[in-house]
Amino acid sequence: MARRLVPLFNRVLVEKIVPPSKTNAGILLPEKSSKLNSGKVIAVGPGIHNKEGKLIPVAVKEGDSVLLPEYGGTEVKLGDKEYHLYRDEDILGTLHD
Amino acid sequence: MARRLVPLFNRVLVEKIVPPSKTNAGILLPEKSSKLNSGKVIAVGPGIHNKEGKLIPVAVKEGDSVLLPEYGGTEVKLGDKEYHLYRDEDILGTLHD
Amino acid sequence: MARRLVPLFNRVLVEKIVPPSKTNAGILLPEKSSKLNSGKVIAVGPGIHNKEGKLIPVAVKEGDSVLLPEYGGTEVKLGDKEYHLYRDEDILGTLHD
Amino acid sequence: MARRLVPLFNRVLVEKIVPPSKTNAGILLPEKSSKLNSGKVIAVGPGIHNKEGKLIPVAVKEGDSVLLPEYGGTEVKLGDKEYHLYRDEDILGTLHD
Amino acid sequence: MARRLVPLFNRVLVEKIVPPSKTNAGILLPEKSSKLNSGKVIAVGPGIHNKEGKLIPVAVKEGDSVLLPEYGGTEVKLGDKEYHLYRDEDILGTLHD
Amino acid sequence: MARRLVPLFNRVLVEKIVPPSKTNAGILLPEKSSKLNSGKVIAVGPGIHNKEGKLIPVAVKEGDSVLLPEYGGTEVKLGDKEYHLYRDEDILGTLHD
Amino acid sequence: MARRLVPLFNRVLVEKIVPPSKTNAGILLPEKSSKLNSGKVIAVGPGIHNKEGKLIPVAVKEGDSVLLPEYGGTEVKLGDKEYHLYRDEDILGTLHD
């Protein structure tokens, strides 16, 4: 019975996509192929006010696939699942097929 | 006979929710399950003035359930009870059932 | 014949309230009960100018009971009495019965 | 089947141009000749908002040849290829024949 | 034949008041009584420009008795006399009888 | 066949003037006489936007003789020649005969 | 045949006044009397732009006698003479007889 987290300010709740370290046939993949650190945006905050007092909305939205920095982010556990919180300025980009 | 604390600026007074480290039946829970660091907002400050001189109100309100950062916050004792003070910008998000 | 100190900018002159470390009956209180670091505001500065040139008055006023941070503040001796100077932004909140 | 990365804010996705360390005839070039650290811009972010809330576009565009700083940048692997992400303010200049 | 110093920006030229470390009768005073670090303002600068380009005058004026911070300030010798320069923001307050 | 570099933002491309360490007659000059660290401006960037969004042009122009700081600057090799990139704010001044 | 240096931004070119370490009669002066670190302003830059884009002129002018900080400044040699460059904000004040 997990609780829902609504991030504050420009924070973004991300569920990391764990890259398979084995192929379906059970062959171990070399370390390099797991390098892409990506995730799915679960929830975003309302944004932050700039110096003029205007609200700047968060640069990503729920459902986006995002490229994450190698370090940083705050681990959060909600129910059984593990998530990470990032400031939107720390997210590197969005991924598209 | 506890005194009431009214926080200044964008500070937030939080009562931490101590997660049970045993189940009702007395079984010790593994360390991971106590990871969620949450609390209840008891009182909030009036907010801070931005560079333009406008008052930006605090991003959470009395009664909110909040997700707290692992480090930081100032321990405060009022009467018998222990509370913590946070800047609203350090609170990670609000929790909803 | 103590001199009167008028603080500059957003500084606040505070007289700390020393919590009794013994009860009236002479029983030593455990360390925890003296944890509340509070004081009484004796004098406040005029405030500071924000980036727009507007004067932002100090957030507390003479006579307020205030909760002080554990560290910081500048010790000042006027006549026989000991006071402390704080920036108003470092004062945690006001205390009310 | 590489995914496409759209950088956020003022980030720039760059494919580094690896300088040949041998001539076509197989003669090893001295270390100095490989000093120029250049790349080709693959994608740019939308830019960042300044303090006034105006969007400042990124200073380079897709297809530009750019001179890169010796240190910094974030390695990104998309499909088989290796790229680097830079903030546009860290890119030294554009190269023209 | 001392030269006169006109401070620049928000600097304040102060002549420190050396507290007597002996009473008139020659009795050594305990260290604590010399704790008050005060001085007399000899000259002040024109002030500094804020971000809007307005000149913010210095917060103290010639002749003021001021309470000085324990550390900081720049020692200046003009003729035979020793003075100290402080930024007005580092001066703690003004002293009044 | 050197490529041309157009600096970004307030960067300045400088060709350093190497002071002769010997006189024409072959007499070694003492170390001190080579102290002046000067160069010639080869290319300048468009400038940077200030907080108001206005473009502030670079403070030096192509062809200027400039006095350079002892440390800093980024070495760049274009074709056979070695250049240095500086932020215009790091250039100390312009030199005139 | 010294070249003339025109400082950039708010930089100030100063010729230090070396205090005599001996009296005319050859008597060595104690170290303290050489403490005053003063100089003469040779040239000043045009000033710097504030956040609003207005040019703030340099706070001293050619010919001023100035009091210099004990540390800082950049040594510059023009022809045979040694000068120092300071940001005007680092100059402590002007000296008048």
UniProtKB/TrEMBL annotation, chains A, B, C, D, E, F, G:
Pfam families: Cpn10. One of its GO terms (cellular component) is mitochondrion. Keywords: Chaperone. Coiled coil: none annotated. Gene3D superfamilies: GroES chaperonin. Forms stable complexes with CPN60 in the presence of ATP. Belongs to the GroES chaperonin family. HAMAP family: CH10. This is Protein groES.
